[in-house]
Amino acid sequence: AGSGAGADMRTEISTAAAFVTRLLRAAGGVGEEQLRCFRECLQEAMREHYRHHWFPLVPSKGSGYRCIRINHKMDPLIGKAAGMIGLSHERLFQLLPSELTLWVDPFEVSYRIGEDGSICVLYESPQPGGKAAKQLESRTSCKEEWRIGRSSPSKSYNMMTVSS
Predict the structure, then answer these.
(1) What pLDDT shows up at residue 125?
(2) Fold classification of 7-122 (topology level)
(3) Which of 11, 107, 146, 155 has the lowest tally of Cβ within 10 angstroms?
(4) H or E segment at 79?
């Protein structure tokens, strides 16, 4: 294998691609073989896209470039992988959350569904050099969020409140 960036972004990329694939699987209507192909195509597209934009010594550098975003426009990397299995952008918009941000950075992959959803961490590993990992928001709210994050709650929806 080649040296440099390609070798050590494998975990982050596979985590991100598996997450998007999981969202598609949860939406239903896409076959397992298509999903497998989608995941591989997405990983390949990400590897290519990030090749010269991966800086383990400065993980936040290039973060915007690596960010995968669906926001009334389909992210080109997701669009490209979906095209390989014959899914149109229209179909993707039906299957995936309409607002999704996925940050793929060295040592951390996180996402947010909705413009003001909480940021949830999918993968985190300590950085070599041992700086303590930054404090994360409570993760418990994230576990099921991607399932219900597809549509905003209707007005009659009661949010659970914690009374002291």
Answers:
(1) 92
(2) Actin; Chain A, domain 4 (3.90.640)
(3) 155
(4) helix 76-84
